[in-house]
Amino acid sequence: MKLNIVIVGVGGQGALTTAYIIARSAMKAGLNVMTAETHGMAQRGGSVEAHVRIGDVKSPTVPIGSADVMIALEPSESLRYSKYLNENSIVILNDKPIIPPTVSVGVSRYPSLEEIIESLKRITKRVYVVKASEIAEEIGNIRVTNVVVVGILLKLLKLPFNYEHVESVLKDIMSEDMLNLNLKALEAGFKLAQPSEV
Predict the structure, then answer these.
(1) Any idea what DSSP says for residue 196?
(2) Residue 32 phi, psi (nearest 5)
(3) Angstrom distance (rounded) from CA 120 to CA 58
(4) CA–CA distance from 126 to each of 31, 86, 92, 164, 198 (Å)?
(5) 42-93 confidence digits (pLDDT tens)
(6) Rounded to 5 degrees, what are φ and ψ at 194?
(7) H or E stretch covering 39
(8) CATH class of this structure's domain 2-191
């Protein structure tokens, strides 16, 4: 068994925490796990990429074209890292953009969500657009968007670890004041009606 997951986003969205939660959950299920991360100016909203490889793997980084799942916490980052996708990859795409300064000052243009989806669908038809940030805001804190997405991932795919493993990891790593919010986020993502492919 082998499962390759790539998590992408911008600094401050919790991409690295997401990878850690998934990796620890798989370890609780008794699985071999390897992880890798690269991030630039993460504190300033720079691009962040994290890899989680579960099962029979020897290297921590997902080979180009070999992602089973991509979690994109920010839509345009899915395009930046689309080299990891193949025709069977599943993309879970959070629909809330974070507009970079270059767009704000008119140096570059941010693609529309439709353009992003269209580009991804040239590689894989299995693109799921989710309103994870909106759900997190309804719960009370946009910072739990990443945990909402983990809940959606659990609902969407048959994974080699389960809801209880993730819940246990959250109890291990979250501060007391953030735990209930994160547990609510996980539940909200998991209870979301089955996301439909676009």
Answers:
(1) P
(2) -75, 135
(3) 28
(4) 26, 10, 9, 26, 8
(5) 455 689 999 999 999 999 999 999 999 999 999 999 999 999 999 999 999 9
(6) -45, 115
(7) strand 33-39
(8) alpha beta
Q: CA nearest 17: which of 186, 152, 191, 146?
A: 146
Pair of tokens at residue 45: 């909203």
C-alpha triplet 21, 53, 7: angle, nearest 5°: 55
Residue 156's closest CA among 2, 5, 55? 5
Q: Which two tokens stand for residue 178?
A: 């953030």
Please choose, from the candidates 121, 26, 23, 111, the residue with its C-alpha nearest in 3D space to the C-alpha of residue 75.
111
Q: State how beta strands 90-94 and 69-72 pair.
A: parallel
Burial pattern 97-115, b for ≥16 Cβ within 10 A else e, equals bbebeeeeeeeeebeebee
Task: Tell me the domain boundaries of the chain.
Answer: 2-191
Whether the pTM exceeds 0.85: the reply is yes
Tell me which amino acid residue 16 is: L
Q: What stretches of 128-175 show up as alpha helix (H) in DSSP? A: 132-139, 145-156, 163-173
Per the DSSP assignment, residues forming a β-bridge with 3 are 54
